[in-house]
Amino acid sequence: MSKGIIVKDKINLQELILPSSSLSDQEIESSLNRWTILLHQHQIHVVFHQDPLCIRDQYDFMANEFMQMLLPPHPAGLQFCFVYDRVAPHPSIDDANQLVQQLLEDIFRKQKIEEINTTAQLMHFNEYENLSEPEFRYLIKNSEERKPAISQCNIMFRNKKMENNALVLAGRYQLGYAHPHFCQIEQGGWEASLKKMTGKWVVEALFIDGF
């Protein structure tokens, strides 16, 4: 049975490990592939659970933590399997929240809807599928003409999940309609599905109760 040994020495890694900031994505991917093959040759396996995938996170983990990890005393030929499951909130999800919040407020407040980047310029809105952006705007405008102006608009976020490679946000809304002698409150649910396109969130589906 061998003594305790760090991973880097176990696999006899001789190369200089550079910081990820000095490497291109292609160089990072090449290093990860090379290390994976070397680890497998020494019965060490690393499984990455990431959604979305980020090879720079994987490289930083391997270079700064995993290669320096101490393996316990073990017999020759023992298989090691490690799972990387450190999923942290992605800062860009805040951008998705802001996009959905602004879109819903613009719809409810009858503001001019800013240009929306959608997958292939098509989106699913309630029961309507494959809408172009002009068609989506027409449906919203047509709905606006049937509703009075609102005095209150409250957008609430309830759920957030990754589903079929899309970020799905869901929540509730509460609207206040001011009338001469009373105030009408309207409530309902909403759900939005977004994907990343060229580094930006795009809306591919939107569902709003009551529209």
Radius of gyration: 25 Å
Q: Please provide the ordered H/E string of secondary-structure elements.
A: EHHEHEEHEEHEEEE
User: Percent helix among the residues?
Assistant: 25-40%
Distance between the termini: 69 Å
Enumerate how many helices there are, as a single number.
Answer: 5
- Could you describe the largest sheet, including whether it forms a barrel? 6 strands, mixed
Secondary structure category: alpha+beta
Strand order of the largest sheet: 6-5-10-9-8-7
Number of strands: 10
Share of β-strand residues: 35-45%
Model regions low in confidence, pLDDT < 50 over at least 5 residues: none
Average pLDDT value? 81
**How does the overall form come out from the CA principal axes?**
elongated
Write up this protein.
The chain has 211 residues and is α+β, with helices and mostly antiparallel strands. It has five helices and ten strands. The chain has a six-stranded mixed beta sheet. It has a two-stranded antiparallel ribbon with strand order 1-3. Helix 2 (25-41) packs across helix 3. It is elongated, with a radius of gyration of 25 Å. It starts with a strand and ends with a strand.
How would you summarize the topology of this molecule?
Layout: E1 5-6, H1 7-10, H2 25-41, E2 44-48, H3 55-64, E3 70-71, E4 80-84, H4 92-109, E5 122-125, E6 128-132, H5 133-144, E7 150-163, E8 166-178, E9 183-197, E10 200-208
Helix pairs in contact: 2-3
Characteristic key phrases:
6-stranded mixed beta sheet, elongated, single chain, 29% helix, 211 residues, alpha+beta
In short:
This protein has 211 residues and is of the alpha+beta class. 29% of the residues lie in helices and 35% in strands. The mean pLDDT is 81.
